[in-house]
Give the backbone structure.
Amino acid sequence: MKRRTPVYINILIVLGLLLVVFYMFAQSSDFFKTKYFWAAALVSIIVVFIQAAIGDLIENEKFKKLTDEEKKLYLAETKVPYFQYLWNSASKKQTAKEEEDILIDHGFDGIMELDNQLPKWWLGLFYFGVAYCILYIASYSFTDFAHPYVEYENEHKAQIAAIDEYNKSVPPVTIETAVFSEDNVAEGQQIFNTNCTACHMDAGKGGIGPNLTDNFWINQPEKTLFKNIFHVVYNGSPHNPTMQAWGKNGVLTGKDIEKVAAYVYHINQEQAPITPAQGGAAPQGTEAHWEK
Ligand code: HEC
């Protein structure tokens, strides 16, 4: 008769598995605070005790059927501490009689096969794995658990929120604080392509709106070119409402205007003007003499 695993070990194993499952699904250690975890732990412990009680009954029945010799042997065995018993049985060989009972009637080259029972811990792990698979596939199919897309969405939202939070904490860009930066030109070009090319055309060569690459300007409210661009884009043109006040109207933020102004500055100062001969619009306004 085989010795049974003590109840406290079964309880530890079950609690360990519960921890794994809850942690996997909650993705944080907060589950300790939920009543679900403690309810599941309580139910599991009760089930372990019920299983132990049934085991006791079966053991008693089996014990009655043993011979006196076997009874003595079994009782002596139960006196050995459990872990020592495990240690001993790891190196214990089956007796010839025991082997005869489980010998399967086929072999090859003198090698015979024994019908050994699978270890309980192995079977337990196997059934746990199967149950876990079912749980996992079901929650993957019918809930948001472990979905790469959902996880991506959530992280994306969290990042956007973090960026908004950051933007709220930095002071807005105004004409006083705006500065030209080479780093803003590429992003400024994107803003320009989205909002401005309808009138100022590709690369600011001019159409409904004036050519932005030459040195002739209708509006010259500021002394330096960069501030001048920021001013006109932020406030619009006082003479022509077609050029709306992108900043005042709230269409673009100060930060965006700083970027798009960097792009306009770039095409005006760091690239050759697009002349009418090259398809650019004819100069409008008066020649500008910007302060550096
Ligand atoms: C709906 C057409 C339209 C759009 C869109 C538009 N503009 Fe203009 N823009 C104009 C017109 C028209 C003028 C000339 C205003 C005037 O006569 O005072 C102008 C003038 C300007 C000027 C001053 C040029 C000068 O010679 O005084 C700048 C700088 C400018 N726009 C930049 C931009 C930027 C940057 C954008 C995109 C954010 C933009 N514009 C979008 C029509 C437009």
